[in-house]
Protein backbone atom coordinates (compact mmCIF):
# COMPACT_ATOMS: atom_id res chain seq x y z
CA UNK A 1 0.00 0.00 0.00
CA UNK A 2 1.45 3.34 -1.10
CA UNK A 3 0.93 6.68 0.64
CA UNK A 4 1.88 9.94 -0.98
CA UNK A 5 1.05 13.56 -1.58
CA UNK A 6 0.56 15.92 -4.48
CA UNK A 7 3.51 18.30 -4.17
CA UNK A 8 2.62 21.99 -4.00
CA UNK A 9 5.86 23.99 -3.55
CA UNK A 10 5.96 26.51 -0.72
CA UNK A 11 7.94 29.02 -2.78
CA UNK A 12 5.70 30.40 -5.49
CA UNK A 13 3.28 27.42 -5.75
CA UNK A 14 3.62 25.90 -9.25
CA UNK A 15 5.04 29.17 -10.48
CA UNK A 16 8.25 28.01 -8.75
CA UNK A 17 9.38 26.68 -12.15
CA UNK A 18 9.96 30.31 -13.17
CA UNK A 19 12.47 30.79 -10.33
CA UNK A 20 13.45 27.19 -9.61
CA UNK A 21 15.25 26.92 -6.27
CA UNK A 22 16.47 23.41 -5.57
CA UNK A 23 17.31 24.22 -1.95
CA UNK A 24 13.71 25.28 -1.31
CA UNK A 25 12.45 22.13 -3.03
CA UNK A 26 14.73 20.01 -0.85
CA UNK A 27 13.42 21.70 2.28
CA UNK A 28 9.85 21.02 1.16
CA UNK A 29 10.67 17.38 0.51
CA UNK A 30 12.36 17.04 3.89
CA UNK A 31 9.15 18.23 5.54
CA UNK A 32 7.24 15.51 3.67
CA UNK A 33 9.61 12.60 4.16
CA UNK A 34 9.21 12.72 7.94
CA UNK A 35 5.48 11.97 7.56
CA UNK A 36 6.28 8.46 6.33
CA UNK A 37 5.18 9.13 2.74
CA UNK A 38 6.72 7.07 -0.03
CA UNK A 39 5.84 9.05 -3.18
CA UNK A 40 4.88 12.43 -4.56
CA UNK A 41 3.10 13.60 -7.69
CA UNK A 42 4.62 16.65 -9.39
CA UNK A 43 3.34 19.16 -11.93
CA UNK A 44 5.44 20.82 -14.62
CA UNK A 45 3.61 23.76 -16.14
CA UNK A 46 3.16 22.94 -19.82
CA UNK A 47 3.47 26.52 -21.20
CA UNK A 48 6.78 26.98 -19.36
CA UNK A 49 8.23 23.67 -20.50
CA UNK A 50 6.97 23.83 -24.11
CA UNK A 51 6.37 27.53 -24.90
CA UNK A 52 6.50 26.83 -28.63
CA UNK A 53 5.31 23.67 -30.33
CA UNK A 54 8.84 22.92 -31.54
CA UNK A 55 10.64 24.08 -28.36
CA UNK A 56 10.81 21.92 -25.24
CA UNK A 57 13.14 23.86 -22.98
CA UNK A 58 16.16 21.72 -21.98
CA UNK A 59 16.72 23.75 -18.80
CA UNK A 60 13.16 23.13 -17.63
CA UNK A 61 13.51 19.39 -18.25
CA UNK A 62 16.82 19.41 -16.37
CA UNK A 63 15.13 21.08 -13.38
CA UNK A 64 12.41 18.42 -13.39
CA UNK A 65 15.09 15.73 -13.30
CA UNK A 66 16.77 17.54 -10.39
CA UNK A 67 13.48 17.55 -8.49
CA UNK A 68 12.98 13.82 -9.10
CA UNK A 69 16.55 13.10 -7.98
CA UNK A 70 16.06 15.17 -4.83
CA UNK A 71 12.90 13.22 -4.04
CA UNK A 72 14.68 9.93 -4.62
CA UNK A 73 17.42 10.93 -2.19
CA UNK A 74 14.69 11.15 0.45
CA UNK A 75 13.09 7.82 -0.41
CA UNK A 76 10.23 9.35 -2.36
CA UNK A 77 9.14 7.91 -5.70
CA UNK A 78 7.74 10.39 -8.23
CA UNK A 79 4.82 10.42 -10.65
CA UNK A 80 4.99 13.28 -13.16
CA UNK A 81 1.93 14.96 -14.68
CA UNK A 82 2.60 16.18 -18.18
CA UNK A 83 -0.01 18.46 -19.74
CA UNK A 84 -0.70 21.17 -17.14
CA UNK A 85 -3.26 21.93 -18.07
CA UNK A 86 -5.53 22.83 -15.20
CA UNK A 87 -4.59 23.35 -11.56
CA UNK A 88 -6.67 24.78 -8.70
CA UNK A 89 -9.06 26.75 -10.97
CA UNK A 90 -6.32 28.12 -13.27
CA UNK A 91 -5.71 26.95 -16.84
CA UNK A 92 -2.14 26.68 -18.11
CA UNK A 93 -2.17 26.20 -21.86
CA UNK A 94 0.62 27.22 -24.27
CA UNK A 95 -0.03 30.18 -26.55
CA UNK A 96 0.24 27.94 -29.60
CA UNK A 97 -3.13 26.36 -28.69
CA UNK A 98 -5.16 29.52 -27.86
CA UNK A 99 -6.57 32.76 -29.28
CA UNK A 100 -4.96 33.46 -32.69
CA UNK A 101 -3.62 29.89 -32.74
CA UNK A 102 -6.82 28.33 -31.42
CA UNK A 103 -6.77 24.60 -32.15
CA UNK A 104 -8.56 21.66 -30.58
CA UNK A 105 -6.41 20.12 -27.86
CA UNK A 106 -7.62 16.62 -28.61
CA UNK A 107 -7.95 16.42 -32.40
CA UNK A 108 -5.72 18.95 -34.18
CA UNK A 109 -2.88 17.02 -35.88
CA UNK A 110 -0.18 19.60 -35.08
CA UNK A 111 -1.26 19.93 -31.45
CA UNK A 112 -1.28 16.17 -31.10
CA UNK A 113 2.23 15.84 -32.49
CA UNK A 114 3.45 18.54 -30.10
CA UNK A 115 1.82 16.88 -27.12
CA UNK A 116 3.25 13.50 -28.07
CA UNK A 117 6.78 14.82 -28.32
CA UNK A 118 6.46 16.70 -25.03
CA UNK A 119 5.22 13.68 -23.10
CA UNK A 120 7.81 11.42 -24.73
CA UNK A 121 10.60 13.87 -23.90
CA UNK A 122 9.69 14.15 -20.21
CA UNK A 123 9.34 10.38 -19.88
CA UNK A 124 12.63 9.72 -21.66
CA UNK A 125 14.49 12.21 -19.48
CA UNK A 126 13.41 10.23 -16.40
CA UNK A 127 13.44 6.71 -17.80
CA UNK A 128 16.71 5.75 -16.09
CA UNK A 129 15.76 7.22 -12.69
CA UNK A 130 14.87 4.38 -10.29
CA UNK A 131 12.48 6.61 -8.31
CA UNK A 132 10.45 7.60 -11.38
CA UNK A 133 7.07 5.82 -11.26
CA UNK A 134 5.72 6.99 -14.59
CA UNK A 135 3.66 9.69 -16.27
CA UNK A 136 0.12 10.91 -15.78
CA UNK A 137 -1.00 12.54 -19.02
CA UNK A 138 -2.27 15.65 -17.28
CA UNK A 139 -4.27 16.88 -14.34
CA UNK A 140 -7.99 16.43 -15.01
CA UNK A 141 -7.46 17.44 -18.62
CA UNK A 142 -10.95 16.12 -19.38
CA UNK A 143 -12.30 19.43 -18.06
CA UNK A 144 -11.18 21.09 -21.33
CA UNK A 145 -13.58 18.91 -23.34
CA UNK A 146 -17.00 19.85 -21.97
CA UNK A 147 -19.09 22.09 -19.78
CA UNK A 148 -18.75 23.81 -17.35
CA UNK A 149 -15.46 24.97 -18.92
CA UNK A 150 -16.11 28.41 -20.46
CA UNK A 151 -14.36 27.55 -23.74
CA UNK A 152 -14.35 23.76 -24.22
CA UNK A 153 -12.70 21.86 -27.04
CA UNK A 154 -15.64 19.67 -28.02
CA UNK A 155 -14.97 16.04 -28.93
CA UNK A 156 -16.78 12.71 -29.05
CA UNK A 157 -16.11 9.81 -26.71
CA UNK A 158 -14.40 8.00 -29.60
CA UNK A 159 -12.06 10.95 -30.09
CA UNK A 160 -11.35 11.08 -26.35
CA UNK A 161 -10.42 7.41 -26.36
CA UNK A 162 -8.17 7.84 -29.39
CA UNK A 163 -6.42 10.81 -27.76
CA UNK A 164 -5.81 8.88 -24.54
CA UNK A 165 -4.41 5.86 -26.36
CA UNK A 166 -2.09 8.00 -28.47
CA UNK A 167 -0.72 9.99 -25.53
CA UNK A 168 -0.22 6.91 -23.36
CA UNK A 169 1.72 5.33 -26.22
CA UNK A 170 3.98 8.41 -26.35
CA UNK A 171 4.77 8.01 -22.65
CA UNK A 172 5.53 4.34 -23.18
CA UNK A 173 7.94 5.16 -26.00
CA UNK A 174 9.79 7.53 -23.70
CA UNK A 175 9.93 5.27 -20.64
CA UNK A 176 8.98 1.69 -21.51
CA UNK A 177 7.46 -0.40 -18.77
CA UNK A 178 6.70 2.40 -16.30
CA UNK A 179 3.29 3.05 -14.76
CA UNK A 180 1.73 5.46 -17.26
CA UNK A 181 -1.87 6.54 -16.72
CA UNK A 182 -4.43 9.28 -17.20
CA UNK A 183 -6.59 11.14 -14.69
CA UNK A 184 -10.01 12.75 -14.93
CA UNK A 185 -12.15 14.76 -12.58
CA UNK A 186 -15.44 13.15 -11.65
CA UNK A 187 -17.43 14.30 -14.70
CA UNK A 188 -16.07 11.12 -16.27
CA UNK A 189 -18.06 9.14 -13.70
CA UNK A 190 -21.03 11.41 -13.07
CA UNK A 191 -21.87 13.67 -16.05
CA UNK A 192 -24.14 12.39 -18.82
CA UNK A 193 -22.66 12.93 -22.27
CA UNK A 194 -19.16 13.78 -21.05
CA UNK A 195 -16.72 12.50 -23.72
CA UNK A 196 -14.27 11.00 -21.23
CA UNK A 197 -16.08 7.93 -19.95
CA UNK A 198 -15.88 5.48 -17.05
CA UNK A 199 -14.72 2.84 -19.54
CA UNK A 200 -11.78 5.05 -20.55
CA UNK A 201 -10.86 5.59 -16.91
CA UNK A 202 -11.10 1.94 -15.92
CA UNK A 203 -9.57 0.32 -18.99
CA UNK A 204 -6.85 2.56 -20.45
CA UNK A 205 -3.46 3.01 -18.81
CA UNK A 206 -1.62 0.94 -16.24
CA UNK A 207 -3.95 1.78 -13.34
CA UNK A 208 -7.26 3.58 -12.79
CA UNK A 209 -6.98 6.99 -11.15
CA UNK A 210 -9.85 8.51 -9.18
CA UNK A 211 -10.04 12.05 -7.82
CA UNK A 212 -12.42 12.46 -4.88
CA UNK A 213 -13.76 15.91 -4.00
CA UNK A 214 -16.81 16.17 -1.77
CA UNK A 215 -17.62 19.75 -2.79
CA UNK A 216 -19.34 18.13 -5.82
CA UNK A 217 -22.68 18.06 -3.97
CA UNK A 218 -21.83 15.23 -1.60
CA UNK A 219 -20.96 17.32 1.45
CA UNK A 220 -23.71 19.82 0.66
CA UNK A 221 -26.25 16.98 0.64
CA UNK A 222 -24.91 14.75 3.41
CA UNK A 223 -22.93 17.11 5.65
CA UNK A 224 -19.25 17.03 6.58
CA UNK A 225 -19.52 13.86 8.70
CA UNK A 226 -22.16 11.98 6.73
CA UNK A 227 -21.44 8.44 5.62
CA UNK A 228 -21.61 9.42 1.96
CA UNK A 229 -19.10 12.23 2.56
CA UNK A 230 -16.57 10.21 4.52
CA UNK A 231 -16.98 7.27 2.13
CA UNK A 232 -16.98 9.23 -1.14
CA UNK A 233 -13.45 8.19 -2.06
CA UNK A 234 -14.24 4.55 -1.31
CA UNK A 235 -17.36 4.83 -3.46
CA UNK A 236 -15.33 6.06 -6.44
CA UNK A 237 -12.79 3.27 -5.94
CA UNK A 238 -15.61 0.72 -6.00
CA UNK A 239 -17.42 2.45 -8.88
CA UNK A 240 -14.28 2.19 -11.01
CA UNK A 241 -14.27 -1.57 -10.56
CA UNK A 242 -17.73 -1.85 -12.10
CA UNK A 243 -16.25 -0.79 -15.44
CA UNK A 244 -12.90 -2.58 -15.22
CA UNK A 245 -12.47 -5.57 -17.52
CA UNK A 246 -9.69 -6.83 -15.25
CA UNK A 247 -11.50 -7.70 -11.99
CA UNK A 248 -8.39 -6.91 -9.98
CA UNK A 249 -7.14 -3.86 -11.84
CA UNK A 250 -5.20 -1.54 -9.49
CA UNK A 251 -6.96 1.68 -8.53
CA UNK A 252 -5.12 4.79 -7.36
CA UNK A 253 -6.84 7.35 -5.15
CA UNK A 254 -4.69 10.01 -6.77
CA UNK A 255 -6.37 13.08 -5.31
CA UNK A 256 -8.43 13.54 -2.19
CA UNK A 257 -8.57 16.49 0.17
CA UNK A 258 -10.53 18.21 2.93
CA UNK A 259 -11.97 21.40 1.38
CA UNK A 260 -13.06 24.07 3.87
CA UNK A 261 -15.87 25.09 4.43
CA UNK A 262 -17.44 21.87 3.12
CA UNK A 263 -15.16 20.12 5.59
CA UNK A 264 -14.62 22.67 8.40
CA UNK A 265 -11.01 23.08 9.46
CA UNK A 266 -11.85 21.69 12.90
CA UNK A 267 -13.05 18.47 11.24
CA UNK A 268 -10.19 18.03 8.75
CA UNK A 269 -8.34 15.46 10.86
CA UNK A 270 -11.49 13.38 11.34
CA UNK A 271 -12.32 13.52 7.63
CA UNK A 272 -8.76 12.55 6.70
CA UNK A 273 -8.78 9.56 9.01
CA UNK A 274 -12.26 8.40 7.98
CA UNK A 275 -11.60 8.82 4.25
CA UNK A 276 -8.30 6.95 4.22
CA UNK A 277 -9.62 4.20 6.49
CA UNK A 278 -12.58 3.70 4.14
CA UNK A 279 -10.26 3.59 1.12
CA UNK A 280 -8.15 0.94 2.82
CA UNK A 281 -11.26 -1.23 3.06
CA UNK A 282 -11.42 -1.45 -0.76
CA UNK A 283 -9.61 -4.19 -2.68
CA UNK A 284 -6.90 -3.60 -5.28
CA UNK A 285 -6.00 -0.09 -4.11
CA UNK A 286 -2.52 0.84 -5.35
CA UNK A 287 -2.21 3.86 -3.09
CA UNK A 288 -3.60 7.05 -1.58
CA UNK A 289 -2.14 10.44 -2.56
CA UNK A 290 -3.42 13.44 -0.60
CA UNK A 291 -4.12 16.86 -2.06
CA UNK A 292 -1.97 18.58 -1.21
CA UNK A 293 1.43 18.87 0.48
CA UNK A 294 1.61 22.55 1.52
CA UNK A 295 -0.92 25.37 1.70
CA UNK A 296 -1.01 27.97 -1.06
CA UNK A 297 0.67 31.13 0.30
CA UNK A 298 -1.78 33.91 1.05
CA UNK A 299 0.52 36.26 -0.84
CA UNK A 300 -0.80 34.73 -4.07
CA UNK A 301 -4.05 36.26 -5.32
CA UNK A 302 -7.30 35.11 -6.90
CA UNK A 303 -7.49 31.48 -5.82
CA UNK A 304 -10.89 30.20 -4.70
CA UNK A 305 -10.89 30.43 -0.92
CA UNK A 306 -10.93 26.68 -0.34
CA UNK A 307 -7.68 26.24 -2.32
CA UNK A 308 -5.55 28.11 0.22
CA UNK A 309 -5.86 25.64 3.10
CA UNK A 310 -5.74 22.16 1.57
CA UNK A 311 -2.18 21.33 2.61
CA UNK A 312 -1.06 18.73 5.12
CA UNK A 313 1.42 21.41 6.11
CA UNK A 314 1.21 25.17 6.11
CA UNK A 315 3.09 27.29 3.59
CA UNK A 316 5.68 27.71 6.38
CA UNK A 317 6.04 23.89 6.51
CA UNK A 318 4.37 23.53 9.92
CA UNK A 319 2.37 20.31 10.33
CA UNK A 320 -1.42 20.69 10.41
CA UNK A 321 -4.01 18.38 12.05
CA UNK A 322 -4.80 16.61 8.76
CA UNK A 323 -1.08 15.96 8.30
CA UNK A 324 -0.79 14.49 11.78
CA UNK A 325 -3.81 12.28 11.15
CA UNK A 326 -2.40 10.95 7.89
CA UNK A 327 1.05 10.38 9.40
CA UNK A 328 -0.55 8.38 12.22
CA UNK A 329 -2.45 6.21 9.75
CA UNK A 330 0.69 5.59 7.73
CA UNK A 331 2.55 4.54 10.86
CA UNK A 332 -0.27 2.12 11.74
CA UNK A 333 -0.18 0.57 8.27
CA UNK A 334 3.58 0.24 8.02
CA UNK A 335 4.53 -3.37 7.46
CA UNK A 336 0.94 -4.54 6.99
CA UNK A 337 -0.36 -6.24 3.87
CA UNK A 338 -3.35 -4.59 2.25
CA UNK A 339 -5.86 -7.43 2.48
CA UNK A 340 -9.44 -6.20 2.98
CA UNK A 341 -12.25 -8.77 3.01
CA UNK A 342 -14.02 -9.43 -0.27
CA UNK A 343 -17.10 -7.29 -0.90
CA UNK A 344 -19.57 -10.09 -1.59
CA UNK A 345 -22.73 -7.95 -2.02
CA UNK A 346 -22.96 -5.81 -5.14
CA UNK A 347 -25.29 -3.01 -6.14
CA UNK A 348 -26.19 -2.80 -9.83
CA UNK A 349 -25.32 0.20 -12.00
CA UNK A 350 -27.50 0.83 -15.06
CA UNK A 351 -25.83 3.70 -16.91
CA UNK A 352 -27.36 2.88 -20.28
CA UNK A 353 -24.44 0.83 -21.57
CA UNK A 354 -20.86 0.22 -20.52
CA UNK A 355 -19.08 2.12 -23.29
CA UNK A 356 -20.67 5.58 -23.56
CA UNK A 357 -22.59 5.36 -20.23
CA UNK A 358 -25.18 7.92 -21.41
CA UNK A 359 -27.04 7.81 -18.09
CA UNK A 360 -24.05 7.81 -15.74
CA UNK A 361 -25.61 10.58 -13.64
CA UNK A 362 -27.39 7.77 -11.77
CA UNK A 363 -23.99 7.35 -10.08
CA UNK A 364 -23.67 11.01 -9.05
CA UNK A 365 -24.52 12.47 -5.64
CA UNK A 366 -28.30 12.45 -5.40
CA UNK A 367 -28.56 9.72 -8.03
CA UNK A 368 -30.14 6.37 -7.18
CA UNK A 369 -26.92 4.35 -7.32
CA UNK A 370 -24.95 6.81 -5.18
CA UNK A 371 -27.66 7.17 -2.57
CA UNK A 372 -28.38 3.44 -2.37
CA UNK A 373 -24.68 2.67 -1.95
CA UNK A 374 -24.42 5.28 0.81
CA UNK A 375 -27.50 3.86 2.54
CA UNK A 376 -26.17 0.31 2.45
CA UNK A 377 -22.83 1.51 3.78
CA UNK A 378 -24.50 3.42 6.61
CA UNK A 379 -26.31 0.19 7.52
CA UNK A 380 -22.94 -1.53 7.94
CA UNK A 381 -22.77 -3.29 4.58
CA UNK A 382 -19.71 -3.18 2.36
CA UNK A 383 -21.24 -3.02 -1.13
CA UNK A 384 -19.38 -3.43 -4.37
CA UNK A 385 -20.81 -2.14 -7.64
CA UNK A 386 -21.48 -4.13 -10.82
CA UNK A 387 -22.78 -3.05 -14.22
CA UNK A 388 -26.36 -4.22 -14.71
CA UNK A 389 -25.38 -6.05 -17.92
CA UNK A 390 -22.92 -8.14 -15.87
CA UNK A 391 -25.24 -8.75 -12.93
CA UNK A 392 -26.00 -12.32 -14.09
CA UNK A 393 -22.54 -13.09 -15.52
CA UNK A 394 -21.38 -15.96 -13.32
CA UNK A 395 -17.75 -15.76 -14.37
CA UNK A 396 -17.51 -12.02 -13.74
CA UNK A 397 -19.22 -12.19 -10.37
CA UNK A 398 -17.12 -15.15 -9.26
CA UNK A 399 -13.91 -13.40 -10.29
CA UNK A 400 -14.81 -10.56 -7.93
CA UNK A 401 -16.13 -12.69 -5.08
CA UNK A 402 -19.70 -11.39 -5.48
CA UNK A 403 -22.35 -13.76 -4.15
CA UNK A 404 -25.36 -11.43 -3.89
CA UNK A 405 -26.68 -8.72 -6.18
CA UNK A 406 -29.29 -6.06 -5.49
CA UNK A 407 -30.63 -3.07 -7.37
CA UNK A 408 -30.94 0.49 -6.06
CA UNK A 409 -34.70 -0.09 -5.90
CA UNK A 410 -34.13 -3.05 -3.58
CA UNK A 411 -32.29 -1.04 -0.97
CA UNK A 412 -34.41 -0.52 2.08
CA UNK A 413 -36.91 -3.18 1.02
CA UNK A 414 -37.17 -6.93 1.46
CA UNK A 415 -36.50 -7.89 -2.17
CA UNK A 416 -33.05 -9.17 -3.10
CA UNK A 417 -31.86 -11.78 -5.49
CA UNK A 418 -28.91 -14.09 -5.11
CA UNK A 419 -26.43 -14.27 -7.95
CA UNK A 420 -25.34 -17.58 -9.47
CA UNK A 421 -21.77 -17.00 -8.32
CA UNK A 422 -20.19 -19.30 -5.78
CA UNK A 423 -18.48 -17.77 -2.72
CA UNK A 424 -14.96 -16.67 -3.58
CA UNK A 425 -12.29 -14.74 -1.71
CA UNK A 426 -9.16 -13.12 -2.96
CA UNK A 427 -6.56 -11.19 -0.98
CA UNK A 428 -4.58 -8.30 -2.40
CA UNK A 429 -1.19 -6.96 -1.52
UniProtKB/TrEMBL annotation:
> Which domain of life does the UniProt lineage start with?
Bacteria
Database matches in InterPro entries: GH
Specify residue ranges for compositional bias: Basic residues: 414-429
Region of interest: Disordered: 403-429
The protein here is known as Glycosyl hydrolase
Question: Which species?
Answer: Streptomyces glebosus
Amino acid sequence: MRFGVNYTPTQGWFHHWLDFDLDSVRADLDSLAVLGLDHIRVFPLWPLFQPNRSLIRPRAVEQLVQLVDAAGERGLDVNVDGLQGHLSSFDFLPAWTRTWHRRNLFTDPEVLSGQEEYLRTLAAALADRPHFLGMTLGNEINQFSDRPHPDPDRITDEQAGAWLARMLAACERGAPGRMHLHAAYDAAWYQDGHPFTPAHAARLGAVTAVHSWVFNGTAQRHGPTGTATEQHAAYLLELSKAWATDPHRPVWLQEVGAPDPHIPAAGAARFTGATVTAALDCPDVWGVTWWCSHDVPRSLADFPELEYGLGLLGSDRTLKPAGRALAALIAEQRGRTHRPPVRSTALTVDAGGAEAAPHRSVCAPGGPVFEAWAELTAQGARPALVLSELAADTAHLTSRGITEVCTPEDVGGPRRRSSPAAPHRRSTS
